[in-house]
Each structure stands twice: as structure tokens, then as C-alpha cells.
Amino acid sequence: MSVNRQRLGKLGEAEARRRLEQEGYIIQAVNWRSRFGELDLVAQHGERLVFIEVRARSAASGGRYGTAAESVDFKKQRQVRSLAQAYMAATNQRDAAIRFDVITLTIGLDGTIQAYSHYEAAF
């Protein structure tokens, strides 16, 4: 992953986390890793454990690689579900009510957030 993509991802995750906390989400984990991959954000929202996939795109890309939301394809959804099961087992939360959300952001070259969308129960 290029430095610019890493920077874009970190900016997106930080902004998503900031907004989620403002909305009353309690962040449990950031970039939780297992041998199967990584969960971007895990949060508690009311009685639900929420697994959040964050996707950031540069405004400069002009959508030529598709939208950020489109990048959360079936394969990615399957991976996030598997990671969620591993997280729940590792944190002894096997019986928790869960939800899978997607947050998409468009970030300008100067680092400003140009668009932000939060899709609850996205998959």
C-alpha cells in the first residue's frame, strides 16, 4: 500500500471515529487484527456491537476506481463477518447483538473531508 493510500486511510478512520464518538458510539477497538485480516472499527452503540468498515477515497481520483461503497464487495463482507466472529470469541462477546456498518469518505488533496456517509446495517 502506498504512503498516500495509508495516509488517506488513517485520515478516514480518524474522522469516522471522531464522528461516531460524537454520535454516542463507544469505540472498543481500532484496527483490530487477527491472522484473517483487520477490522477498522468496533464500537458499542446502545445494546449492539457494531463492526464498521471505513473506506476513504481521494477527491482527485474522480471516481475512476468506483465509489468507496462499491469497494465493500461480497468478498470483503465475508471477510468482515469472519473477523467479527473471531473478535467476538476473543473478547467473550459471542452472544452480542451485532450490526455491520460502512462509512465512506471523500478526502480532498488538502486533507479536508468533502463527503461523509454512514450506512447502518449495510450488510
TrEMBL record:
Protein name per Swiss-Prot or TrEMBL: UPF0102 protein D3P08_15620
Gene Ontology molecular function: any one: nucleic acid binding
Domain of life from the UniProt record: Bacteria
Family, per entry: Belongs to the UPF0102 family.
Pfam family name, one: UPF0102
Residue intervals passing through the bilayer: none
Gene3D superfamilies linked to this entry: 3.40.1350.10
Species this protein is from: Paenibacillus nanensis
NCBIfam families (alphabetical): PRK12497.1-3, YraN family protein
